[in-house]
Amino acid sequence: MATFISLVNFTDQGIRNIKESPDRYEAFLAGAEKAGVTVKTALYTVGQYDMVLIVEGSEPAAVAALLKVGSLGNVRSQTLRGFSVDEMRKIIASMP
């Protein structure tokens, strides 16, 4: 399973409807789980980003879940593919 870290910002629409944000998160959580994606961490933050999400799942399922939430217009995200230490060891071992 792949790990993805998303740095999330509210759009103008998302911040106007901030009171609905926890409910939107619950809807995202339900949809992600239905697609086989596990939300490992979800944190609201202050500063440059408004939320941080860490999700795990197959790459197609995780990317689809993140694209779906973005398509609703409440958030924009920057998503990073994360690798565990063991995954990185395997990658490094495969280097010529």
Would you kindly provide a brief summary of this structure?
With about 100 residues, the protein is an alpha+beta fold. The chain has helices at about 10-15, 20-35, 60-70, 85-95, and strands at about 1-10, 40-45, 50-55, 75-80.
Explained architecture:
It is built from four helices and four strands. The chain is of the alpha+beta class and 96 residues long. The chain has a single domain, classed as ACT domain (Alpha-Beta Plaits, 2-Layer Sandwich). A four-stranded antiparallel β-sheet has the order 2-3-1-4. The chain starts with a strand and ends with a helix.
Keywords:
96 residues, alpha+beta, Alpha-Beta Plaits, four-stranded antiparallel β-sheet, 4 helices, 4 strands, 32% strand
